[in-house]
């Protein structure tokens, strides 16, 4: 509340619009000869920093106090019109601008294009005034419309005050906002958003960092060509074409408009080059327009930003309406090199004051900057609260059936298939938020081949409102799997078993209970301690069924070391929370230790077991990309002491029925290696689409196809494996390396791996594309 009061006070200190009686000057700006509307025509009040632009229909509005004004109406390529107007009541004034004379440049036979000399002067003059710019404040209005296919799906609008100082980023305070009824007010964060300024050496746009056309290195990255010169009553305006010299570096295509004598940019219209690629986007069109005006006779500041974009999602099996975004920001009332309180720059980049959500019709009437178009007015009238953006954008298609199953009553059914249980069918319930402090889970089912009932029930109690501390208890009689990284779930195992008679799991029966305490004292650090009391019994293969390969036999099922297991597991993790491993990158370090002994815990087993897991990624090249080429490293290592039972042996995960996630031995066989000590180091470098951009293969880079190289080294030792069990060890170090293509159909990757360990072989595997 105190912060909001301070911000409101700042508005009044730094130039809020006066609440005196006002009148509205409105009208349209059109081409004098054709009558065509001129969108983003510039209207400036002479002698002030006030002004506005026209909307897409060529309409404008200025809220003024009664009096006489001199206004300049201008549009690039047209002769400006200076008009003296006495405004004592609401007044409509339509303006017609005449095109200027266009002079085409002489053909350059030898030497450089005249555009280069013009741009040198622009860059030289830029440094003369930009170094004097220390702070500024502005008022702004922003309207952002979202389209699905061709219709407007939502509109958000805000009035903001912006503050900037050299060495810092733009801070904006949202002081009034409104939106169509289908948008939650908390979702309306429309703003200028860090004024993209084409005078900057580096321009941040959509997560990419582009080389600016006025940077000191501009001539290394761009070709400039003088297209034409507009000549009228005032200074000539040069239109210069901008062409990138590289498809790999983020650069712009488009045009710059340069005013003669001042050699300053007054207009920009650009589109990004080929590097502007996003995951799962099959088609993207994006245009950025901006105009500049002279303030205090030396500073060329942005007066508007107009963005128009279109994209289409390209994922096999998923259909999504094409998405369009139109954003217009009008920036006015600049105050340059004023003193701004330091407290402003201690705030977040975007702040919403409490009063912003109390719709003030008087404020909106007295501050209208950019009139609504007819289509926008209709959208406000017809879009209701039921037409949420999420509902309108909801994907359809065969792949979305999986999402439907996850939300349908079928989620309460548990069905799996393996060579021990055969077909298992049951019901399950899991809810993490029965209450804010309670989570519950329960399941029961029957294996048709082993003729056993499995059941479990558990509860988790959260000890704080943030759910960072909890205790849980679980009782069960069920089937367990030999320890592995859990890369293949029961659905994958059932599918591979039924289709190719390949069961990845090794199983045993366990009956007992477990008690767990979890804590997350820091945002990136968590700890879990579990005590387990279980009876372990061997499971036998009970079925040889498969839909195909009736003559093939399943891999032999191993026995376990039976007995009463009482043990403690401690897990420490630092880093991001696990989410879709192998698909979403998470840097982390995790240490797990298992301990069981006969004296203290009265277990029939006596061993200790330690596992270290770590993943790390580092951008390597072209860090100006949103998703730059990146190196991924994964380390998994384990050691043990005492007498390690078979069900607790370390195994090195391998490819499975043609599937090969990151970190597995893609050239390995299922359960090929097992023992008491091991290490696996995997490295993968994703070059993204850069090689295809460099080679100019549009089909591949436009579809976001990525190329990767990778290598894995691994070794397994016998360690503390029990003497009754014969470990399966690597013959020295195991090595493999390969190359892959990712983002095929948006979701898949294909890898070709060469195994250098005996027996040497080449393997082709499929995987899921890494998103981040």
Identify the notable features of this structure and list them briefly:
about 775 residues; mainly beta; 16-stranded antiparallel β-sheet; twelve-stranded mixed β-sheet; elongated; disordered N terminus
Description:
This protein is mostly beta strands and 772 residues long. Helices cover 10% and strands 46% of the residues. The protein contains 10 helices and 40 strands. A 16-stranded antiparallel beta sheet has the order 23-24-25-26-27-28-29-30-31-32-33-36-37-38-39-40. β19 (281-295) and β20 form a beta hairpin.
Please provide a brief summary of the model:
By secondary structure, the protein is mostly beta strands. The protein has 10 helices and 40 strands.
Overall pLDDT: 90
Please indicate the percent range of residues in DSSP E strands (runs of 2 or more): over 45%
Report the structural category. mainly beta
Widest sheet: strand ordering:
23-24-25-26-27-28-29-30-31-32-33-36-37-38-39-40
Q: What does the radius of gyration come to? A: 33 Å
- What profile does the largest beta sheet have? 16 strands, antiparallel
Summed up, the helix count is 10
Count all strands and give the number: 40
Shape: elongated
Low-confidence stretches: 1-20
Between the first and last Cα atoms, what is the distance in angstroms?
38 Å
Helix content: 10-25%
Topology readout:
Blueprint lengths: L1 H12 L9 E9 L10 E4 L5 E3 L5 E6 L2 E8 L6 E7 L3 E2 L2 E3 L3 E3 L10 H17 L4 E14 L2 E15 L5 E9 L22 E4 L2 E4 L6 H4 E10 L5 E8 L7 E8 L4 E9 L8 E15 L3 E15 L9 E14 L13 E3 L8 H6 L7 H9 L6 H4 L7 H8 L5 E6 L3 E14 L2 E10 L4 E11 L6 E13 L8 H11 L6 E16 L2 E14 L24 E13 L12 E9 L10 E13 L10 E13 L7 E2 L22 E2 L1 E10 L3 H5 L3 H5 L3 E12 L16 E11 L3 E8 L5 E8 L4
Parallel strand pairs: 1-7, 1-8, 12-22
Antiparallel strand pairs: 1-4, 2-3, 2-5, 5-6, 9-15, 10-11, 10-21, 11-12, 13-14, 15-16, 16-17, 17-18, 18-19, 19-20, 20-21, 23-24, 24-25, 25-26, 26-27, 27-28, 28-29, 29-30, 30-31, 31-32, 32-33, 33-36, 34-35, 36-37, 37-38, 38-39, 39-40
């Amino acid at each position: 509340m105190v912060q909001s009061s301070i911000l409101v006070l700042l508005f009044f200190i730094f130039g809020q619009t006066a609440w005196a009686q006002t009148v509205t000057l409105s009208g349209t700006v059109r081409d004098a000869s054709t009558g065509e509307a001129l969108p983003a025509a510039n209207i400036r009040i002479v002698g002030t920093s006030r002004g506005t632009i026209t909307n897409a229909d060529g309409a404008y509005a200025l809220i003024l106090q009664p009096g006489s004004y001199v206004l300049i109406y201008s549009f690039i390529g047209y002769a400006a019109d200076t008009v003296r107007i006495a405004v004592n009541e609401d007044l409509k004034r339509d303006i017609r601008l005449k095109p200027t004379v266009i002079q085409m440049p002489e053909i350059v036979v030898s030497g450089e294009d005249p555009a280069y000399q013009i741009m040198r002067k622009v860059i030289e003059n830029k440094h003369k005034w930009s170094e004097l710019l220390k702070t500024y404040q502005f008022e702004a209005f922003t309207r952002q419309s979202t389209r699905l296919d061709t219709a407007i799906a939502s509109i958000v609008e805000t009035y903001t005050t912006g503050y900037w100082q050299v060495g810092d980023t733009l801070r904006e305070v949202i002081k009034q906002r409104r939106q169509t009824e289908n948008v939650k007010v908390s979702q309306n964060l429309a703003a200028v958003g860090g004024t993209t300024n084409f005078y900057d050496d580096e321009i941040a746009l959509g997560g990419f960092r582009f080389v600016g056309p006025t940077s000191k290195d501009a001539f290394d990255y761009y070709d400039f060509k003088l297209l034409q010169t507009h000549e009228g009553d005032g200074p000539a305006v040069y239109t210069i074409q901008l062409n990138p010299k590289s498809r790999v570096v983020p650069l712009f295509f488009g045009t710059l408009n340069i005013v003669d004598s001042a050699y300053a940019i007054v207009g920009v219209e650009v589109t990004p080059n080929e590097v502007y690629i996003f995951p799962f986007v099959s088609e993207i069109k994006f245009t950025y327009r901006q105009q500049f005006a002279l303030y205090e006779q030396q500073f060329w500041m942005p007066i508007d930003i107009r963005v128009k974009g279109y994209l289409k999602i390209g994922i096999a099996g998923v259909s999504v309406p094409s998405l369009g975004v139109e954003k217009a920001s009008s920036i006015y009332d600049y105050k340059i090199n004023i003193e701004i309180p330091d407290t402003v720059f201690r705030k977040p980049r975007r702040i919403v004051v409490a009063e912003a959500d109390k719709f003030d019709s008087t404020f909106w009437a007295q501050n209208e900057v950019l009139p609504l178009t007819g289509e926008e007015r209709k959208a406000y009238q017809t879009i209701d609260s039921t037409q949420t953006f999420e509902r309108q954008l909801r994907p359809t298609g065969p792949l979305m059936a999986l999402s439907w199953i996850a939300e349908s009553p079928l989620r309460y059914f548990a069905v799996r298939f393996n060579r021990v249980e055969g077909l298992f069918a049951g019901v399950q319930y899991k809810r993490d938020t029965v209450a804010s402090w309670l989570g519950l889970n329960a399941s029961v089912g029957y294996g048709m081949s082993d003729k056993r009932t499995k059941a479990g029930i558990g509860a988790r109690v959260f000890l704080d409102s943030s759910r960072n501390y909890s205790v849980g208890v679980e009782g069960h009689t069920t089937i367990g799997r030999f320890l592995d990284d859990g890369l293949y779930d029961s659905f994958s195992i059932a599918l591979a078993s039924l289709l190719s008679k390949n069961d990845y799991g090794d199983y045993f029966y366990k009956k007992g209970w477990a008690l767990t305490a979890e804590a997350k004292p820091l945002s990136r650090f968590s700890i879990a301690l579990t005590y387990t009391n279980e009876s372990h019994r061997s499971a036998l293969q009970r079925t040889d069924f498969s839909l195909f390969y009736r003559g093939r036999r399943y891999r032999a099922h191993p026995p376990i070391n039976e007995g009463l297991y009482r043990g403690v597991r401690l897990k420490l993790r630092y880093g991001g929370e696990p989410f879709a491993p192998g698909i979403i990158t998470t840097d982390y370090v995790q240490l797990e230790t298992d301990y069981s002994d006969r004296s203290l815990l009265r277990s029939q087993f006596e061993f200790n077991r330690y596992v270290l897991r770590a993943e790390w990624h580092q951008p390597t090249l072209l860090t100006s990309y949103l998703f730059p080429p990146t190196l991924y490293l994964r380390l998994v290592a384990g050691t043990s002491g005492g007498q390690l039972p078979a069900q607790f042996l370390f195994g090195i995960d391998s490819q499975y029925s043609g599937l090969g996630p990151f970190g597995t031995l893609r050239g390995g066989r299922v359960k090929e290696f097992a023992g008491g000590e091991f290490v696996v180091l995997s490295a993968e470098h994703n070059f993204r689409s850069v090689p295809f951009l460099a080679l100019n293969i549009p089909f591949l880079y436009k579809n976001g196809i990525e190329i990767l190289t990778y290598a894995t080294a691994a070794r397994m030792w016998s360690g503390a494996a029990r003497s009754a069990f014969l470990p399966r060890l690597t013959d020295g170090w195991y090595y493999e390396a390969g190359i892959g293509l990712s983002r095929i159909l948006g979701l898949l990757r294909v890898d070709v791996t060469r195994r250098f360990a005996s027996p040497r072989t080449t393997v082709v595997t499929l995987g899921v594309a890494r998103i981040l």
